[in-house]
Design a protein that fits this description.
By secondary structure, this protein is of the alpha/beta class. It contains five helices and ten strands, in the order αβαβαβαβαββββββ.
Amino acid sequence: MQINKIKTEIAEMLSDVFDGATIMVGGFGEAGSPIELLHGLIDHGAKDLTIIANNSGNGRVGLGALIGQKQVKKVICSFARSAKGITFQELYNKGEIELEVVPQGTLAERIRAAGSGIPAFYTATAVGTPLAIGKEEKIFNGKKYILEEALNADFALIKADVSDRYGNLTFKKNCKKF
């Protein structure tokens, strides 16, 4: 049997997404954001989603639009505020969406750990800040660390320039960062 992961219709690409799914969204701010897939997810209608991304969306397009449609229950990100971040801020101020802020390097490591089968790891990042409240602490060589759990997702939405039938992706310019 030959592998062919190429799909040409956005509805087909998103057909397996279910209510309550956790979805990682690629991109760094607006750069590299999979806007077409995010708008396809709006059309698909899945709700109660948890989004793992670098930020909480910009304006009323892409992730901002998905959040504005109230399809997202929680955002896990390193940057929840931006000059164009309208919809998330409005819903957050009303208590209609949850937020987990994670330092950017820790966010990347939590994602990497999940991909490597590592359930959790200790880091000194965020020790002594509100981000460490409620997290397990441990001392190693006289220095305090907190336990961070890996971030697993059911799906990932990624903007790429080229894909092959095996699912390998090629990126253009600098949009492969996150």
